[in-house]
Amino acid sequence: MDRQQLRQQVLAELQHIAPELEAEALRGDRPLRDEVDLDSMDWLRFLGALHRRLGVNIPEADYHKLDSLDALIAYLEPRLVASSP
Fold it and tell me: What is the pTM of this model?
């Protein structure tokens, strides 16, 4: 899966949590939770959905690294490759 496909997968899960989201308006460098207005439960549901969809484990200790869409993609990309058969 290339970076653009990964971004589409992430945005698809995000839109399940926040259906009012306008994905094309998201800026990759801004705080994602603020930009989408996700509370802590929505954030956990989103990360859980990414885990189920992509098969990538995201430990709680790494949550602080996932502050923007760009950071989330950069975090997931090498782990997705590492978890591929």
Answer: 0.87
Residues 9-44 have pLDDT tens digits of: 999 999 999 999 888 888 999 999 989 999 999 999
Q: What residue numbers bound the domain in which 31 lies?
A: 3-83
H or E element at residue 20 = none
The number of folded domains in the chain is 1
Place of tokens 């800026």: 27
The closest alpha carbon to 28, from 14, 7, 57, belongs to: 7
What is the structure's pLDDT at 83? 62
- Percent of the chain past pLDDT 70, that is, above it, reads 95
The answer to whether residues 76 and 50 touch, using CB atoms and an 8 Å cutoff, is yes
d(CA 71, CA 32) in angstroms, rounded, equals 9
